Amino acid sequence: MTTGWLVTGAGGMLGQDVLAELAADPDAVVTGLSRDRLDITDPTAVRAAVTGHRVVVNCAAWTDVDGAERSEAAATSVNGMGVRHLAHACRESGALLLHISTDYVLPGDARRPYPEDAPTGPVNAYGRSKLVGERAVAELLPNTGYIVRTAWLYGEHGPNFVATMLQLAARRETLDVVADQHGQPTWSRALAHQLAALGRAALAGQAPAGIYHGTAAGHTTWCGLARETFRLSGLDPQRIRPVGSEKFPRPAARPAFGVLGHGNWLRAGLMPLPQWYDQLSTALATPSFAGLAAAARTSSES
User: Fold this and answer.
1) CA within 13 Å, CB half, 21
2) DSSP state string for 158-216
């Protein structure tokens, strides 16, 4: 029996990977709507888009963290009210909602991984806007809403830290990278696979609604991620120099510790995502990243 899936934000980095993942499922009939085809702040358009689908994967979001600091109302319109429109439409139609959120809803001052039920407390406007969306899902879809928090996402289909490091490696001898922020680098393709598995488990009644942490196992710093990217790409990791966050002041504060726990996956009968460095090794072997690495090595040798 086939199942209708709707992917919002389908033109983004994660959205494209979710579409590719679902395309391999013979039981999934998939509709992908990018931002130019569905504005989730339009409740009428959202209701029409959701109708006829059994699972909605919401990858649509305002992701400009510093921009949100300057335009919090606009960010909240997408990340908060837009998600509320989706949750309303899913409640009316009986669809499941898998909503992508972020570690930024947490205060980032812990020393141990945050469990899924940890108290929230965002330190910036982006986190506050995403928390509005989380609360809408929890309120409107207590039994059919799934909040999947992710962090430090990188992939083939959009700007991201890993690609930036390889691009800069071709132009600069050394790079200063922040070493006092801790997180879990997560490959978007691995997260897409996890989302598809969660959706299927939810349809089968095996995964309870609630919060799941869609981040890699283990953790590192931005400096650690950059050095491992260099090492795996055949570049000298010592070209990466550790610095404090104060060297790169930004409009929006960043949580110092965004490490998340993964207990709810096991309770749902699903394995958490693999270690961050294993994901990175696999990702760097894909054509787009391998091409960037080859260009960086060539530049270093010239």
Assistant:
1) 24
2) S--HHHHHHHHHTT-S-EEEE-S-EE--EEHHHHHHHHHHHHHHHHTT-S-SEEEE---
**126 catalytically annotated:** yes
What's the pLDDT tens digit per position in 171-190? 999 999 999 999 999 999 99
In sequence order, the 6+-apart residues with CB closer than 8 A to the CB of 216 are: 184, 185, 186, 187, 190, 273, 274, 275, 276, 279
Whether 197 contacts 269, CB under 8 Å: no
Across the chain, what does the average pLDDT equal?
97
Per DSSP bridges, beta strands 28-33 and 175-178 are unpaired
Which of 81, 68, 74, 100 lies closest to 42, judged by CA?
A: 81
Residues 131, 133, 139, 145: is their CA dihedral positive or negative? Answer: negative
Q: 231: closest CA among 275, 166, 279, 185?
A: 166
Q: Is 205 left (phi over 0), alpha (psi -120 to 50) or beta?
A: left
| Given 104, 114, 126, 212, the catalytic residue | 126
CATH number of 3-158+186-217+258-274: 3.40.50.720
Domain positions in the chain: 3-158+186-217+258-274
Instruction: Provide the sign of the torsion angle of the four alpha carbons 72, 75, 78, 83, taken in this order.
Output: negative
Torsion of CA 13, 15, 20, 25, to 10 degrees: 150
Please name which of 132, 111, 156 lies closest in space to residue 256, comparing C-alpha atoms: 111
pTM above 0.85, yes or no: yes
pLDDT in tens, 68-88: 999 999 999 999 999 999 999
